[in-house]
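Running this now, will post back.
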Amino acid sequence: MDNTIKAAREIGRAIQADPRYVEYHEAKEANDNDKELQDLIGEFNLVRQNLGMEANKQGEGRSEEKITELNNDAQAAYARVMDNENMKRFTEAKNSMDNLIRDISTVISLCCDGEDPDTCDYKPQPASGCASGGGCSGCGKH
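Update: finished.
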């Protein structure tokens, strides 16, 4: 087996052992099993679908008043979804997991650019006034 693929499989095992991964999958399962949340998501999707159909109407069949009403309904349904405790937990866990994957991807990209795997900086840098928002290696202007 190719050593690079073997190392990627090791990364996969490390990800699955990470507490962020465990929390993400537990939160996802809680969402999937939360009937109230699933009903709220269904309600949101139905309103959004009706809004889309109304917005796509042409001419006299289109009602701006109905679009506004459906838009308000969609926003209210979305707020109810996002206010659900399982959804809050899932959102937080997903953000944490996304950050982990971003950091891993950054290390891999930096290594592909020739940086030292042991020392490359994978955390976003504070804005430095540059358009790139980070270190000088990104644009070479300095």
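The mean pLDDT is 90. More later if anyone needs it.
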